[in-house]
Design a protein that fits this description.
By secondary structure, this protein is an alpha/beta fold. The protein has two domains: 326 residues, TIM Barrel (Alpha-Beta Barrel), CATH 3.20.20.140; 102 residues, no CATH class. The chain contains 19 helices and 22 strands. The protein has an eight-stranded parallel beta sheet, with helices on both faces. It has a seven-stranded mixed beta sheet with strand order 3-2-7-19-20-21-22. It has a four-stranded mixed beta sheet with strand order 5-4-1-6, with no helix packed on it. Helix 5 packs across helix 6, helix 6 runs parallel beside helix 7 and helix 8 packs parallel to helix 9. It holds the Pfam family Amidohydro_3.
Amino acid sequence: MRLVMHGGTVVDSEEMRRADVAIEGEAITEVGEIPVGPDDRVIDCRGRYVLPGFVDTHSHADGLVEDESVQRSLLKQGVTTAIAGQDGVSFAPGDGAYASEYFAAINGAHPTYAGGGVAAYLAGVDGRSRVNFAYLVPAGTVRWEVCGRSKTPADAVQRAAMVDLVEEGMREGAVGLSTGLDYVPGLFASTDEIAALCAPVASVGGVYVTHMRGGYEANSAAGVEEIARISALSGARVHISHFHAQAHIVQDQLEALARSGVDATFDAYPYTRGCTLLGMPLLPPELAVLPADAVVEALEDPHERVRLRREWFPAVERNASLGPEWPSMITLAHIAAPGFAWAHGLTLEAAAAKAGTDPVETALDLLAASRLQVNAVMAVRHERKVAELARIFSNPGHMGGSDGIFIGAHPHPRARGTFARYLREYVRETATWSWPEAVRHLSAAPAARFGLGRRGRVATGWTADLIVVDPETVRDTATYERPLGEAVGIDDVVVAGEPVLTGGALGGRTPGRGLRRQAAAPPLAQSARSPESAGE
């Protein structure tokens, strides 16, 4: 039976026009004026826009692919494909044990994955989700599988074994390799080691995606210099995760990459605060890399607490992104210990005051009681206004990414609001993007960049991953104070030709797939080395 999306305005990356869209099976069969037959299923799109589904280039829904509330949150924003395996840590390859321990407060616990590598992870999505997932081979997980908790550079035998795992992941359909160079064990990887892992990625046209080293913001130059070297040694194309800094820093560093001949793109979300594991900035790496039991034992040792207070926390205060105000800049989003549920949504400063202790003791108490499973919203020292973010989003190398973390009673609002916020704030309210430009940044360019096949366009023969947007009402409702509000203005979504959101209600079928890397359609993205990016 044919499905007709009738009466809307079709928005592609180059134009918008009044047109109907006919779908048979998984594919778009016609775009134009289409008479509706008596046997057709019809979605009434009058007064609304029909767009290709959005691609979230940085998602942490890795373990939540079957969670209907997460699927709904993504679909309500118009996201039909999410790219998992971010920041160097996820389930595959291996048995998923490291991710389930270290990254549980970010990626969640996968309900079915117990090994089998990238192929098994992607197969676990097929037919079990309303949203598609692509996957990056996580370099930290690869290092864990080969080197365990070692803090020393990999030797030649270990490096070869890691390269083999990356090659296997790419053969099984991964779209690239990710690193998280502020997390363990990725933090211990050398530049040359990462470049060696990127070589098999480059050989098949994949992308090196990086949470770069050094903390971003004012420290971005050091991370970008390493990226340039990795690309030069491996030949890999690059995508920088959540590139957040002052607009002139982002622009200057992208231009530096362009001068180095690096093919680079990036994602950035429409918020200035971040979200991460509480232990990442507050525990030394040599402690954080130990088994959870050992870390908890150390944190419960009064002598170790004295040592951390004396030797480590002064470094926290010197951290360029935090500084002496760090207790007031960290808001507790997820605490796995039920006894500390009262602290959700409080800053560490406020939680310490309520507990009758100080922020260092409170932080260590939380981490020990939760077996490290704590994440937090991180303020920045200089909040950026909409106009400054608009300068970043105007760069032709920018792509949409939420860095969405769904774990937590008081999470960052970006998980549920990012893509609706793009449309509200940067299309409707400020006209940073036209509607076709929004499609380019949020759908067409990412689909081409990551080899997602015939997605990202509303055109005959392309996969029918489509969303229907009310341009006058689409908006985010999640805020820092009330972060669980779902987006509004997108109530009808089709994935692989199947309605998965109808009138705001989830459909019963789950046509989402684990997307295996495909030859890219003709590139629609302007990379950061494009002449158009100069002089922003």
